[in-house]
Amino acid sequence: MEISAWDSFVSQLITTYKLQKCLPRKFCSELDFIKRLAAQPKLCESLRSWLLALPDVRPQGELKSNQYRERGNEIFKSKQSNHLALEVYSKAIFEAPAGTEALALAHANRAILLIRFGRYREAFQDCQLALASGYPEQNRSKVLLRQAECAQHLQDALAIRQTVNGFVALSSQRSLSRLEQEKLHSLQAMLEQRNDKASYEGSGSSAEDEIPLPRLKEVTRTKVGRYMVTEDNIQTDGLISREKAVSFVPVYGVHHRTTIPAFDCQQCARVNVIPFPCYTCGRACYCSTNCREKHEPVHRYECYGYRKHLWYLIGIAHLGIRSFLDGTSTIVSAVNCETKDATNLFQELLDGTQHEDNRFLEYGRVFRLVTNFDRMEPEDVLQYALTGLMLAIYLENCTDFFTTGPLHSILPKDQLLLFTGALIIRHIGQLICNGHAISELQATLPSVASCLEEDGFRLKPGLLHRYYSSERVFTAIFPRISMFNHSCDPNIRNCFEGSTLTVYATRPIRTGGEIFNCYGPNYKLMPASERSMCLRRQYCFDCSCDRCAAGNDTPYEECYLVRCPASSCAAHFSLEMDCKLCSDGGFKCPACGHTIDCSWFQTIMDITETNSDYTNDLFRTCAKAYEKGEKLLVGNNQNKSLLLRLIIDRFLPTAAMDAACLVRLKTMARELVSIQGYLFGRMTPEYIVAWFYLADLLALEHCISDGSVATDGGLRKMLADFRKSLEIIGADNRAIILHYLDSYVKLA
Hints:
Elements (H helix, E strand, L loop, with lengths): L4 H12 L13 H9 L2 H13 L9 H15 L4 H14 L5 H16 L3 H13 L7 H15 L2 H15 L6 H15 L23 E6 L3 E6 L8 E6 L2 E4 L38 H11 L3 H5 L2 H5 L2 H18 L7 H11 L8 H7 L10 H21 L2 H4 L8 H22 L1 E8 L20 H4 E10 L7 E2 L5 E6 L2 E6 L10 E2 L10 H12 L6 H5 L3 H5 L2 E3 L8 E3 L4 H4 L4 E2 L6 E2 L2 H11 L6 H17 L5 H14 L7 H22 L4 H21 L7 H13 L5 H14 L4
Parallel strand pairs: 7-10
Antiparallel strand pairs: 1-2, 3-9, 4-6, 5-6, 8-9, 11-12, 13-14
């Protein structure tokens, strides 16, 4: 794991100021800890100096934006790739300072492409922003006409009215051309027929929202703490709970350190969006101007941190400060109106959030979650506390939170620092053991792979597996669902739609039965000793679920079973294979000592790692090597899963050139899907991603045969399972994949 600049600095602080002496013998409260640290002026000054010395990650001026826009123009004019041009124009918008001509030109140019793609809502907003950002006067009419085209397609009263106002303003400066007059009259006629109260930012609701949820009850037991049981019988696939994240933040990978962040909305959690970033930091991303405006009350205090790349440096602690910022207005509205200090206000929060239903509402449910500080290693608690203090100093010195924020009227500045730091420390501790990863399908950018048709957002046949990958896109807090205890064999599955988490039963749960989530370690994927170590390290408890209590690693071992090829032995044993193990002539059977040849494993690894051109002999060699390994690897073997993915990924792009290769790869892809379904379950991202390979091979076969693909009932059942599994991903991604299936995966 990469050590961030913040982690390194914390280590220096601990040594320099001998901060171990600040550790109480027994953890009392977050407020007590922040008081101990804040009482050291030199430490606070070091934190302040570190923050102010962080460099900007965004270059100043319009140069970078203009370079991107000019590159986009070159791509567009050469007809190289409309989607690549769209990506480059979006990057130009990210890099353009607010209110500059570079920003206006980038929005206007992107609008042209969005209109071609039929994305009229985003194109309309681009036109609005281009005009608002100072688009050159001599060409404003062109942008206004594009906006009119979008408004006509949207047929939305607000969009039409805004465009009409634009033409009226233009007519006060000069006479409108014939085309402009026609557009104006057409829009005015449409406006008369529309409801003035309509909004082009409308939202839909799912019929499933009306399905009643089972009654859940919070129970407390000494050894396991609080947990949830159902007061109703729940059937397999039955709805258990639905909860909107109280707070969430993006997950920034290594590739987002210096480049443009992922195109995912920080307000509604939609992914793979046409991005509308904050112009000040050029890093926070939104799916619309509406979402950007809604998030401004929180983002205004995070903007500086984005410019300094602070949130990337501190990881999950970003969600700690976001949870605090999201909760401040609730705190102000719910506290007593008497004069406060940090101690009294913190105690009021503790007293007022003893029960799930409390006057602090959703924020109160977050505040009452456990932190496990009393069980953690002291050095870890110290690091989290220093992060909390640093973030409080950040709000005081790098933002106007202490002078204009919701809490400034109820606490003096010195007390506000202590209170802010204490709450952020508390939230960091809570999120270590209660945070949820929101996983979604992340689209590959056109600059990496060209997977989309030029005239829209339809996938080219054979490229579904290259377009999508399953990624952690956000880290979120769902306080009610966080009350579900862990089991290595859970009885629920999760389904995300934006920032909403819906939970379903994987098997029947009777009245009074406990609801179990899985915090990561699963009995099929990890031995009991490793599961125990992971849970103890992060969550500070020893698992006593049925699988751990049984002390039986048979399910895990069965996922790595190897059969001895010696006829006199044929023993089965568990073994996780890798290149190191299979080198030097193979390995020995633990039962009979027979040396098992693994040259086939290395052959597959060598071929799949090369970039040489496809040949029939190359594929046949790889396929024969797998056949040798298949005789050794038993059942739903994880080793098989690894090798199958490597082989299919290597030869799928050229499968259409060789009918025999295509048929063999289909068989391999079916096996991969079956293995992943067994290991992870059918309603999982792992199962979906495995299916992408099979869907692409079926699509290629369909295109080659120019018709339906003959198949068997087993594949039909698998395809039905795949369609069902798509319920766990967001509606936007689901629509693209279903269109792909309907277009290319047509079974006879």
